[in-house]
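Hey, sorry to bother you again with one of my protein questions. A protein chain has come my way and I'm curious about its shape. I'm sending you its amino acid sequence along with the backbone structure tokens. I owe you a coffee for this, so here goes:
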Amino acid sequence: MELQKFTYDNRLTNFFIWATVGWGIVAMLVGLTAALELIFPNMSGEIAWLVFSRIRPVHTNAAIFAFVGNGFFAGIYYSMPRLLKTPMYSKALGNIHFWGWQLIIVLAAVTYPFGFTQSKEYAELIWPIDILVVVIWVFFGVNLFMTIINRRVKHIYVAIWFYIATWVTIAVLYIINNLAIPVSFTLSYPIYAGIQDALVQWWYGHNAVAFFLTTPILGMMYYFIPKAANRPIYSYKLSIIHFWALIFLYIWAGPHHLLYSALPDWAQALGVVFSVMLIAPSWGGMINGLLTLRGAWDKVREDPVLKMFVVGVTAYGMATFEGPMLSLKTVNALSHFTDWTIAHVHIGTLGWNSMMNFGMIYWLVPRLFKTKLYSVKLANTHFWIATLGMLFFSIPLYFAGFTQALMWKEFTAEGFLAYPNFLETVTQILPMYYLRAFGGTLYVIGALLFIYNVWKTAAQGKFNRYENDEAAPKAPAKPGESFHRKIEGKPLKLTLLALIVILIGGLFEVVPMYLIKSNIPTISAVKPYTPLELEGRDIYVAEGCYLCHSQMIRPFRNETERYGEYTKAGETVYDHPFQFGSKRTGPDLAREGVKSLPNYKPDSWHYSHMINPQKVSPESIMPQYPWLAENDIDISLTPDKIKVMRTLGVPYPEGFEDEAVANLKAQYDQIANGLRSSGIEVGENKEIVALIAYLQRLGTDVYKNK
């Protein structure tokens, strides 16, 4: 049989590698800045776009979509043609994908600091950028699948199964989670509300971790570890089990982010059960990766690439063991809302994702530039600094999380909260925040060594854009092949089967939340927000308050004693989007406006606290928000907001939008006059008054008859 000759184009791989390198250091520097702001809360001065609550989403999105995303795109564009023995289908589609993706990253970096956000974890992008994400993802998908169709090999290797699952699942998750009705070019309200919105978000959020931060990196693992070790993958059968079990089980796990919340018990139970089962396929993948190195461990001692891969895969195993443990309700009762979760997440990102990216680039760049790695010694130094940085970052946060959980739950012998003042826990964990910042600094230093080493490697070589190869035409299927071998030769059927497998969990979890009314019991006392409160809520979202404050009181004695009655699903039916939060850097605010509770604060306190938290609470690590007293409310959008909310089912009467501004001004004057009577002068139409109105409304509906 005559061999066919063809050529690989490495240009896109090279582009994505340098994008990974550049955005990686940006993500880490912004993350380090955010860590320092928790120690020095006013280090940003009065610059609104540098405040912690606005730059934290910049860090997470840069780390996920810029650093990790560009990294696995580089791996995909390099590995797919070689595994399929064909060039990528379209250079034009590849270029659109690359430049479109970088544009998305830039737009995220520009919009988040200025308060343009949907306030959903890993899905903060405003609706026009969401549409751009979908368009670019489609271009990527067409290139991906057309390349698979044009392949010269009959059977598709396991790495590509994971690439297919990544594309299909992210498409489904992203579109469903981001369904919204626009109010303006920069503002929209999700079609979901409250606990339903929370379920859809964490169905997406947890699986963004699964199918953006895990499955494509597993695909890279299955390609690059055998290449670096010069060994075949340990077990083909184990890879089959790993793939199908992982994508089926992962999609169910989202509800474990909402344990002890207002989410119905049946949904919480499903999340726990499937999260625990995830240990098996996750560790199957880890074992498959590590055992591929059998007979090559002597090489690991010398080779920084293999060192990175070993630590990366081990971190994957540790994170995927800890995740199911954190989904157990007894453990989650301690861990949720604490820094324990932050530590867990960074074992995955700093250990699994980053180490795999580092290892891949150390392996790829010398081959793309026809040279040797500039300095093996420097790469090994980077490895040890990065490993130490990860440990110094994560271990203090574990201790911080344990400390927070235990202090929040402790009672005196007389039955009172041992630490009723939330700030007592904050001051206790500050030394851990210093150590976290030290660990982050080490990691950044390691990344700078990495950049230098990679740049010098490229500089001493010459970029090898085109690589020639040859292969026989695709052979017909052999009789007697197993079912899975047949599926591997039929990519469309494989894709359809993967789609069905990932949709099952969504159908069983998400759909009943909308079809069964008993999941969201009605509370007659709960009413829609007034126009001023609605504006205040939008300001709360824009400023990123949800990043440090929860609005979900769990049914634990320590929480009800501290914050008031636990949160009901029916309280949140008008919340577009939900504001449960994931972390209590500050106290819960679900009952902030209830005057009968011991933690109630008057309007004047909230005003002073926003302007200068340290003046009110000297030990506070909350940053200042002085611009709230200077910025005007954009009342031009208020009628449109009311219209959209009514479209979404919020029972504003017909025509209420025509009187919304007058209603807003009347409530504004009432609060402003009260502030003036307390000696606080406030101008007309200022955002801080709207925010106070929203905070003072929180929790009051269910306390009306108490």
Notes: Residues 12-365+372-510 form a domain with the Cytochrome C Oxidase; Chain A fold (CATH 1.20.210.10). The mean pLDDT is 95. The chain is about 65% helix and 5% strand. The first helix runs from residue 11 to 37.
